[in-house]
Amino acid sequence: MRVVVDLNRCQAYAQCCYAAPERFVLRGDEILVYDPAPPEAERAAIDRAVLACPVRAIRVEHEPRERAA
Asked: Which ranges of the chain would DSSP assign to H, the alpha helix?
């Protein structure tokens, strides 16, 4: 799983910080620091953060699964 935040779209409402405080932190008034490769165990918190963002600045990209040979 890969987390991508469009920092041009982000308005620092910090809703992601409330939804997933271990993965999203607001530094100062406007600097969002986040984990772009969180562990899969954090999936539920990341999904809450994606849904909580009022400007839809956060998306999750999933790695394609390898096919069995």
From this structure: 15-19, 43-52
CATH number at 2-61: 3.30.70.20
Domain ranges, ordered by start, for the chain: 2-61
3-class state of residue 60 by DSSP: strand
Query: Under DSSP, is residue 22 helix (H, G, I), strand (E, B) or coil?
Result: coil
The pLDDT of residue 69: 54
Model pTM score: 0.84
Residue 20 has pLDDT above 60, yes or no: yes
Indicate the residue type of 42. E
Residue 53's nearest CA partner among 4, 1, 2 is 4
| CA 2 – CA 7 distance, rounded (Å) | 15
**How big is the chain by its Cα radius of gyration, in Å?**
13
DSSP state of 49: H
